Every structure is written in structure tokens, then in C-alpha cells.
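Sample entry was shown:

___
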Amino acid sequence: MAIVLRIPGAFPREVWPRITLNLRELLAAPAGKVMTFSMTPLAISSTAIRALAADGASNRYLTPDPVTEYIRSHRLYS
């Protein structure tokens, strides 16, 4: 199963038959279908996230909660 951010021109023609917008179809065909979705890109970089962590500022909502907790608990970038 693959869920992919939709980028214009990102899919070669041979992938087109595997693209679906139906979640049930996606779940019924593991590793056989691709589902796309649109989202607003965030103007954030890994460098900025590391700088926030180094400054002791929160990176919540910029990374998944387990990543935020891992960075905090292992005192990465400090």
C-alpha cells in the first residue's frame, strides 16, 4: 500500500492503472495500489527543526509526536 502526496507530473504513465481514490480498494490490494492526496506544503526544514530543538523550543506539530518525544528523551541537538 502506498499513499503519496500528489505532485503534478509525478507519476509515470505505467503507474496510472494502479492509482485509486477508493480507500477500500487500496486496503484490499496491499502493495498493488497507490492513493494520492493533496495537502498544503509546510515551509519547514529539518535544519529549522534541529535549530528549534537546540534552542529548547517546541517542534510540536512539525514532527510526529513519537519523533518529538525521541528527540527530547535522547537530548538530540542540545
Observations:
- The helical segments are 23-28, 46-54, 65-73.
